[in-house]
Amino acid sequence: MYTSSFSALVLISLIGSSTAFNINFINKCTYTVWPAIGDAPNGQPNESIRFGDRLNPGQSVSHGIDDHAVGVRGWGRTGCDSNGANCKTGACNGGLVCTDAGITSHALLSEYGYGSNNRIYWDLSFVGGTVNIPAELQGPDGQSVTCKNTNCPTNQAFHTSGDYGAIRNSALGGTYNHIFCP
Ligand SMILES: *[C@@H]1O[C@H](CO)[C@@H](O)[C@H](O)[C@H]1NC(C)=O
């Protein structure tokens, strides 16, 4: 009796302290996109956060991430083989689910990280890469940024590491829409 109510209390407090936000990938492109999520705080892959899938045009998929994670990135891959590997753009090591957090994907990334004032700081970035798939990133509170090949100002996405005007921040939780071909 004591043990079971103690376990219930521990469970409740764990649920109370561990919240999540969702990355919802929406494929509005005319082509198939293979979305991926990885985590690499300070450039070191953390394989406890990883996700991969395949989206035909019009499909979407959502994945939950711990609110306190840092170094999280989501991106899309194109031209992959039937295993979700050997992609033409956004490629990673590991196939459908990347094992290297996409640190050499050279793609347009959506980035998320827990920071000061108990907020999630988020942006689009193609530092060292290209806009492989145009994207809009919508925060949970009505803010959004958009980067298309022909129109991607530095207050919408990092082109180089100093483009801090691209950063937005929002309260914990909620859903971020990473829209391919907005
Ligand atoms: C990896 O991510 C998990 C989940 O957010 C976290 O609990 C863990 O501390 C992280 N590990 C490192 C080394 O950052």
TrEMBL record:
Residues 1-20 form the signal peptide. PROSITE patterns: THAUMATIN_2. Pfam families: Thaumatin. This is Thaumatin-like protein. Disulfide bonds join 80-87, 92-98. SUPFAM superfamilies: Osmotin, thaumatin-like protein (SSF49870). Keywords: Disulfide bond, Signal. The lineage of its organism: Eukaryota, Fungi, Dikarya, Basidiomycota, Ustilaginomycotina. It comes from Meira miltonrushii.
